[in-house]
Amino acid sequence: MTTVAQHYEQLLAPVYLWMAGGAEAAFRAGESELDALALPLHQRSVVLDLGAGFGMHAIPAARRGARVVAIDTSVELLATLESLRGDLPIRTVNADLLEFGKHVSEAPDVVLCMGDTITHLPEPALVAQLVRDVASIQTPGGLFVLSFRDYTVPLQAEQRFIPVRSDDERILTCFLEYHNGTVQVHDILNQRSPEGWSTSVSSYSKLRLAPDELTRMLSHCGFEVRREVGLRGMARLVARRA
After folding, report:
1. pTM for the whole thing?
2. Which end of the chain is more exposed for a tag (fewer CB within 10 A), N or C?
3. Which pLDDT does position 169 carry in this prediction?
């Protein structure tokens, strides 16, 4: 079975910025989400961005003065972030989400885990572990913000085929296959070259994580939680360390 890291390396990472509509469109969306969250960012703020990718939230946060630690398993996406950040105070780390504690030397004011990253963990016990580990490093008042797809209610029939993005050169479609506790995401990428069209297919597993379940994990670890609607209809939980 293809791992998340392998799936990104083989298929998604090379086209991820394109999927987001390009750098400036992605950063505008990230800025908009930070505005909606009204995060307390200033020159002394420390932000930990888990699953930072190419910097959709890390770069807008750093533009507001925060010092950002951006962690991701994709070397290619972090290289893109490095090429886009200029002289902004962002430190990139190629590591697993659960290893973030090895790379943080001071308590973050804000921890971000956005864009469906949390569902990449292979089992709910590891989600609970991540929540506990974040709680252990945050001081009272610190924020932990997560956004993710709620896959608990299966899409039916043709609804499982989701057009992601297309233009004259690429067409990306995903197909969802539901299992007990997980959903298998099949990404189908068609690309044009001088020789004609080619097709690449890869799949990986995501957790069917219920917002109420994650809210209970956060509350159990001393967070006060509010639920919102995030970008592209994702569930968004804003958790404040009590």
Report:
1. 0.95
2. N
3. 96
